[in-house]
TrEMBL record:
It holds the Pfam family Arm-DNA-bind_3. Belongs to the 'phage' integrase family. Residues 155-177 are annotated as: Disordered. Residues 255-426 form the Tyr recombinase domain. GO terms for biological process: DNA integration; DNA recombination. This is Site-specific tyrosine recombinase XerC.
């Protein structure tokens, strides 16, 4: 250390500079042991501390710029560093340890922040991960959902607000309601407790009991899945969906039994065939005679209809699709329809291009015929009931309707060809038409013909 020592004052610190031709000069403070001021040729200045370690090695430490460090603060820092040296501690290592500790604290705080953000995130994010894990993917093994199950899960969290394309019940608006689980899953997963679920279920059961029951079952499966995942295990309350909760909060399910009776067939067919829209009239008759579900019939494309080999491929909510016989009367109904687009039951006014809401015309036909209320699904139920009049084996009518087999023999041994199904399906159709007073067309009466678009 040179003899260039003065008592540091703010003025002296500000006036000190490096002489021309030198790289750096030092000025030392007489009031603080080891405190100095370094001025560089470029004009910068730094407070420094120069001292000797216990090993005898000389060290010089930078304290800081006088523009940001007051003289008093620089003296205090010099004393602190000198105290460390007197204790045998190298301030350079102490600085590295302090920086490392600060970095570790920042990293810990970041982990806590991310964890808190994850915990506070809506359970909807975990629900989407659940759907992605179960989504059917080509070439991926394991048990995966079918398209219908996937659609059910997506609908339960749909934001709603879309224009309705089907009929509305009294008091309903013109737009779709939010999915039954959306409000609940907007809460953090750890806050979906039994009390929370009970309050939600009670409210939903009063508005839409069928959807509430489905949502409750799917929510329970979701929480069980979360309890098995390490990232959600500590947040999921598996006991939030107790079995007694559904029993206590949901209304008792009453099975529907709307069905056409034998003596009502004549009046029903007469009223339906008077409907001015030929697409709706054909749709209703096809739904009854095919025993299919509402959307399975509405979703038939022309490419699914084989007039030559008398088969009809329709959607199936379980297996995706199934092939059933194309019976003579149904074939005549379809052959007479206009080919506006890809859909058999087309609609020039619907955005989808196909029939969306046949219930209005059906209800008018029921009223005109003096018949009791009958849902579109009731036509499917009617097919199953009327099939027994011709003593059709239960397994055959179930296969036509797309019901899964229940008996061991049905599951593993009976593989009925389409011809065998056609024999019984044609018999069922012929009996229904006879009871309705309608002549069934012969196979030669059904053929391809050009039909002009009726827009």
């Amino acid at each position: 250390m040179s003899d260039n020592k003065v008592n540091f004052t703010a003025g002296r610190v500000a006036a000190f500079c490096c002489e021309e031709g030198k790289q750096a000069e030092f000025l030392w403070d007489t009031s603080a042991s080891g405190l100095g001021l370094k001025a560089s040729a470029g004009g910068s200045k730094r407070y420094v501390l120069q001292s000797r370690l216990e090993s005898g090695a000389t060290i010089r430490l930078t304290i800081g710029d006088p523009r940001t460090w007051t003289l008093s603060a620089a003296r205090d820092e010099a004393r602190r560093l000198q105290t460390l040296i007197d204790q045998g501690i190298d301030p350079r290592q102490e600085k590295l340890d302090r920086i490392a500790a600060a970095e570790a604290k920042r990293a810990e705080d970041e982990v806590k922040r991310v964890e808190a953000q994850r915990i506070e995130a809506p359970a909807l994010e975990a629900w989407q991960s659940y759907i992605d894990a179960k989504r059917p993917r080509a070439g991926v093994g394991g048990k995966r959902w079918g398209e219908r199950t996937l659609l059910d899960h997506q609908r339960l969290v749909d934001p709603g607000g879309k224009p309705k394309t089907r009929g509305r019940r009294p008091g309903e608006g013109d737009t779709t309601m939010p999915g039954a689980l959306l409000a609940l899953l907007n809460r953090p997963l750890e806050r979906i407790t039994a009390d929370c679920v009970r309050a939600w279920l009670k409210d939903e059961a009063a508005k839409r009991p069928t959807q509430a029951a489905l949502a409750f079952r799917l929510l329970r499966a979701f929480l069980n899945w979360c309890s098995d995942r390490p990232e959600y295990r500590d947040q999921a309350h598996v006991d939030a969906c107790g079995s007694r909760m559904a029993k206590n909060e949901l209304p008792k399910k009453i099975a529907k039994d709307d069905c056409l009776q034998r003596e009502q067939l004549s009046a029903w067919f007469a009223a339906v065939r008077q409907i001015q829209n030929p697409v709706i009239a054909a749709y209703l008759q096809t739904t009854l005679l095919a025993g299919a579900r509402r959307e399975e019939v509405a979703g038939i494309r022309w490419e699914d209809v084989d007039f030559q080999w008398k088969s009809l491929t329709i959607g199936d909510k379980v297996d995706g699709k199934r092939t059933i016989p194309l019976t003579p009367f149904v074939a005549s109904l379809l052959a007479a329809l206009p080919r506006r687009n890809e859909w058999v039951f087309s609609s020039p006014t619907a955005a989808s291009g196909r029939l969306q809401e046949p219930r209005i015309q059906h209800n008018k036909a029921l009223t005109a015929a003096g018949l009791p209320d009958l849902s579109i699904h009731g036509l499917r139920r009617s097919f199953a009931t009327l099939s027994e009049w011709v003593e059709c084996p239960a397994g055959i009518s179930a296969q036509i309707m797309g019901h899964k087999p229940t008996a061991i023999a049905e599951k593993h041994y009976l593989k009925r060809p389409l011809d065998l199904l056609r024999k019984w399906h044609t018999t069922i159709e012929a009996w229904i038409l006879t009871e309705a007073g309608i002549e069934q067309p012969g196979e030669s009466d059904v053929g391809l013909r050009v039909v002009r678009n009726r827009l």
